[in-house]
């Protein structure tokens, strides 16, 4: 086989296998629930049937007290050559083998939503295995008591927390990427980062841009990253209007994002029904530790609620700024960014220069 520009382990290309990744999934399940909270799971029997229905209190993690967090990146973190370090770690290499049909190709293909989302998901979980293989790595993994991810990264966090298997997560991420790409192809849309303004000013900038465009080109804040860095999504003409007006609002700069379209807006509405169907067919369990939702910056324990919020996530603004602020306010001591790039570490440091965060690449 021709060598991959993603520097993946050399395996033959064939139909992607989703048979059990036992080593990964057993390690994930092996952590168990922390703080003895199993007692808050309510059990009920369906009438006239022997099927058990597990009803989980969705507020199970509401009073979480974070000390150590795993943070997972989203789309835009992809880079040619990511995954190279993981080749020397057997457990990480096995994850790539299972996803080999999805990954690979030059950067212009990596920027395609269909390819970049699974690539980042697998590379981020491979980074967990790279850490595990290090001296003291398992102790770090065992100490993690909260996790979250930026957009796509929420799926990675849920897989790490044992809410679904590596394979099921990969299938969901693959379908999510396809559905979002189709939605992006259906209308001309884009995303741009606005640097140097607070959220209120960015909203005013969006309002001004929207006065100059028709309904199909309107824009909105799609990603509340951190103070001074907010992503705006919408129609191409609306995004161009934001770029043209940004200087007059005293923005330091704008950066067009390498994504397929207007993520986290109503432009992604066509993707929702496909996601809902896929999520309905996927077994999702209560996470073993809190996983913070991008939609409301809160942890959810009930699988049905998690499914609902994952479907809503593609059309809802990402509340990352609130998520990180809450973690820091609750006393988070140390965090780790696992996967390609160092975007999340930069965001955390921007919000608290004294915050302790380490990047674990793959």
TrEMBL record:
Listed InterPro entries: Ac_transferase_dom_sf, Acyl_transferase_dom, Acyl_Trfase/lysoPLipase, Malonyl_transacylase_ACP-bd, Mitochondrial_malonyltrans
Q: Which Gene3D superfamilies match?
A: Malonyl-CoA ACP transacylase, ACP-binding (3.30.70.250), Malonyl-Coenzyme A Acyl Carrier Protein, domain 2 (3.40.366.10)
| GO MF, one annotated term | transferase activity
Q: Which SUPFAM superfamilies match?
A: FabD/lysophospholipase-like, Probable ACP-binding domain of malonyl-CoA ACP transacylase
* Domain Malonyl-CoA:ACP transacylase (MAT), first and last residues per copy: 71-361
* Pfam families according to UniProt: Acyl_transf_1
Protein name, please? Answer: Malonyl-CoA:ACP transacylase (MAT) domain-containing protein
Its source organism is Populus deltoides
The root-end lineage is:
Eukaryota, Viridiplantae, Streptophyta, Embryophyta, Tracheophyta
């Amino acid at each position: 086989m021709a060598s991959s520009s993603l520097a993946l382990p050399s395996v033959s290309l064939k139909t992607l296998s989703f048979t059990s990744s036992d080593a990964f999934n057993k390690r994930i399940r092996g952590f168990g629930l922390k703080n003895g909270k199993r007692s808050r799971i309510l059990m009920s029997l369906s009438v006239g049937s022997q099927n058990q229905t597990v009803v989980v209190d969705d507020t199970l993690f509401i009073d979480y007290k974070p000390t150590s967090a795993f943070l997972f990146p989203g789309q835009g973190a992809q880079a040619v050559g990511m995954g190279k370090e993981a080749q020397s770690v057997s457990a990480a290499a096995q994850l790539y083998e299972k996803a080999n049909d999805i990954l690979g190709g030059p950067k212009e293909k990596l920027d395609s939503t269909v390819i970049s989302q699974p690539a980042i998901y697998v590379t981020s979980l491979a980074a967990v295995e790279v850490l595990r293989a290090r001296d003291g790595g398992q102790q770090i993994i065992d100490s993690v008591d909260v996790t979250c991810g930026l957009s796509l990264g929420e799926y990675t966090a849920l897989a790490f927390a044992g809410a679904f298997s590596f394979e099921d997560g990969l299938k969901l991420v693959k379908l999510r990427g396809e559905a979002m790409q189709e939605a992006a192809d259906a209308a001309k849309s884009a995303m741009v980062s606005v640097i140097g303004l607070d959220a209120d000013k960015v909203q005013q900038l969006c309002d001004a841009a929207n006065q100059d465009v028709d309904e199909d080109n309107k824009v909105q804040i799609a990603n509340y990253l951190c103070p001074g860095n907010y992503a705006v999504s919408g129609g191409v003409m609306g995004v161009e209007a934001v770029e043209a007006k940004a200087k007059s609002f005293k923005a330091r700069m704008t950066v067009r994002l390498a994504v397929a379209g207007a993520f986290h807006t109503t432009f992604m509405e066509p993707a929702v029904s496909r996601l809902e169907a896929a999520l309905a067919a996927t077994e999702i369990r209560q996470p073993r530790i809190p996983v913070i939702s991008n939609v409301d910056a809160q942890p959810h324990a009930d699988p049905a609620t998690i499914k609902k919020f994952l479907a809503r996530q593609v059309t809802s603004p990402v509340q990352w700024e609130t998520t990180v602020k809450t973690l820091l306010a609750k006393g988070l001591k140390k965090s780790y960014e696992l996967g390609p790039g160092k975007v999340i570490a930069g965001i955390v440091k921007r919000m608290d220069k004294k915050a302790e965060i380490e990047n674990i690449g793959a």
